[in-house]
Amino acid sequence: MTQDVERLCRELTSFASKILTTPFTLGYYSYQCAISTGWMGPVSIFGYFVVGSLVNKLLMGPVIPRLVEQEKLEGDFRFKHVQIRVNAEAAAFARAGCVEYARTERRLKSLIATQKELIYQELWLSLGTNTFDYLGGILSYMTIAIPIFSGVYNDLSASELSELISKNAFVSIYLVNCFSQIIDLSSNLCDVAGYTHRIGELVEVMMKIVQEDKDVSPAEEEDGSPQEKPQNGDGVFILDNVTVSTPVSECTLVRDLSLRVSKGNSLLISGETGSGKSSILRVLAGLWKTKQGRVSVHTPFGPHGVLFLPQKSFLSDGSLREQVIYPLKEIYPKSGRMDDERILKSLDMSGLTSLVSRTGGLDQAVNWNWSEVLSPGEIQRLAFSRLFYLQPKYAVLDEASSALSEDAEAELYSHCTQMGMTLISVGHRRSLQEFHHLELRLGPGGQWELRRLRKS
Ligand SMILES: Nc1ncnc2c1ncn2[C@@H]1O[C@H](COP(=O)(O)OP(=O)(O)OP(=O)(O)O)[C@@H](O)[C@H]1O
Question: Which residue intervals define the domain ABC transporter in the entry (predicted)?
Fold first, then answer.
């Protein structure tokens, strides 16, 4: 949107400057034309201008609505980009890359289709404009021809006549044209240089990321051999002497942490604000690299393996069904409607049955932005309904129920444990301890303490 406004301001400035100078240019050249050709010259040029404008208006008719459509689609496409950028972490936790890629791609394709149509229509418009310009050059000779053949310049020699024609028709129009083209070209050149620079930066960053990914292969040991799968009960999340630091400032949050989380042994991570609780989850999800030590996760990330629920879940666009099954939309079975009962049950378990009537049904398209309309508590309940629907083996909950009351939180956690999920939770409330077997308490200066809350 900001870019659109900027572009509009630029167009308006150039338009305003042209509007201000055009009357003087027109007056001056009409006067010059009238001197050499009489009243016929300016009148025929103005007549030609009126005809040309009418033709131009006809050709411009279909271009304007298409241009408006293109602006809208461009806005939608940029909005989607911003939406992904703002919610990048939540989407990465949800392993929603494929869904978001498909949705963004869809918007890009419809934008490109509109742009193609626009280019086709603009071709006709520019053909019309160029023809108008070309015939305008001929007209300038015709206007000077009338006084010459009617005998006004009979007293001039051939060379003087030639000079007059050149002066009135060729030099003035051609030079003005040349100068305006050069000015247009230089502003285009500036735009191209700016875009090239920006794209160059993007390519550099992308190459750096690819190189970093090649350098660090998480599935391999330091000596290059693949990791061994853990035996039953060995641990699904293994942190071995791990030190976690913030990416840029390199401030150490957790020092030398060794920890194993196995099936049926839920872990609660607690500690003061900013102590690094969420950062441990970022490390587990592979979003942050560790400064030292090794992290192994022996179950696939995604809806049926490890599912992450952040404090504020990413609610993409779509119907209520799409919200609950997120991020499964693109691989949802054709017999999806058979699933209604399961979705409704998930909503019921998370206390959101009322949403069905509010939206007018599971598949009713809504014209609101989910994250703006739902309250923080409702957003968290909706995230839990995803969890109940997807039923992963492991659920990583980062203060996922912080906006709910203690009772509501306990109810949701009970459902999770009844479904047999192993939980890794970040939370502040003591009441959460009863749903976990281990507690990792983070202290200041990278210190930590691990204690058993109850037997598995
Ligand atoms: N992308 C980042 N770059 C630099 N520093 C960061 C980044 N993300 C978080 N931090 C910093 O790392 C520290 C730990 O952040 P983290 O989110 O892990 O805290 P937390 O223990 O989960 O806190 P809270 O209880 O408030 O959620 C904070 O001081 C935070 O400002």
Answer: 237-453
* pLDDT for res 213: 67
Binding-site residues, ligand 1, Cβ < 6 A: 246-249, 253, 271, 273-279
Query: In angstroms, what is the span from residue 280 Cα to ligand 1's centroid?
Result: 10
Supply the pLDDT for residue 352: 92
Residue 399 Cα: closest atom of ligand 1: 27
- Out of 243, 246, 254, give the residue to mutate to test ligand 1, the one with the largest number of ligand atoms within 8 Å of its CB: 246
Name the pTM for this structure.
Answer: 0.64
Residues forming a β-bridge with 257? 242
- The rounded Cα 396 to chain-centroid distance in angstroms is 26
Distances 180 to 18, 29, 31, 128, 186 between C-alpha atoms, Å:
11, 16, 21, 19, 10
Of 355, 349, 325, 348, nearest to 337 by C-alpha is 325
The residue among 359, 351, 363, 362 whose CA lies nearest residue 410 is 351
Distance (Å, whole) CA 276 – CA 442: 7
Inter-axis angle of helices 97-149 and 40-60, nearest 10: 160
Which ranges in 219-293 belong to alpha helices (H)? Answer: 277-284
Ligand 1 center from residue 418 Cα (angstroms): 32
Superfamily designation of domain 237-452: P-loop containing nucleotide triphosphate hydrolases (3.40.50.300)
Query: How much is the pLDDT for 192?
Result: 59
pLDDT of residue 95: 86
Cα of 246 from ligand 1 centre, angstroms: 8
- What is the SS3 assignment for 88-155? HHHHHHCCCHHHHHHHHHHHHHHHHHHHHHHHHHHHHHHHHHHHHHHHHHHHHHHHHHHHHHCCCCCC
Query: In this structure, are strands 306-309 and 394-398 parallel, antiparallel, or unpaired?
Result: parallel
- Residues of the chain with pLDDT below 70 are 1-26, 29, 33, 37, 41, 168-195, 198, 213-235, 329-338, 456
Specify whether the CB–CB gap between 382 and 350 falls below 8 A. yes
Looking at residue 340, its pLDDT comes to 85
- Centre of ligand 1 from the C-alpha of residue 102, in Å: 31
What's the complex ipTM?
0.95
| Residue 196 in tokens | 């090239």
SS3 87: coil
